[in-house]
Amino acid sequence: MPQDQQGPMALSVVEVVLLGRLDRLHLRVMEQDLDAVRGVLRRLGIEHLAGRDVGELSGGQRQLVYLAQALVSDPEVLLLDEPISALDINHQLEVLELVATMTRERQLCTVMVLHDLQATAHYADDVVLLSDGAVVACGTPEEVLTPDTMRRVFGVQMEVLTTQSGRKVLVPVALA
Fold it and tell me: Is this structure's pTM higher than 0.85?
């Protein structure tokens, strides 16, 4: 799923999502293809958008449509570039939970580009931290997302705080 969702804006949501099954259509759309599209739209909570043109949607709604397109293809590997960047906090959590659930249920290899350190810390099993196209650190979120690494890569002094639920969060406190 690309970060920038510019594309066939004259198509309806159903048509755009259906493009995710293009390799299976064999010149005609079967009922099972439409069922798959309806199912993923329902799972993402956007079935009410099905008949709308993608060009009429907000950036966040388009982002969900393109996520649906990626998921309806039943991939083994799911590549997501900033899948939550245009979403409000509620939809961010819904999408991250859904991706995590579908990754487990479908046994997917999911690779996500995220700039949100808290989301990365909470949802990632493994993290690869890049700077200028080079790998700076690789490992679990606890191994990679450290105050020292954040200072070296981003030039920011961070503190690690523990929430009441026991979750660790990185908080920027100053420029390093």
Answer: no
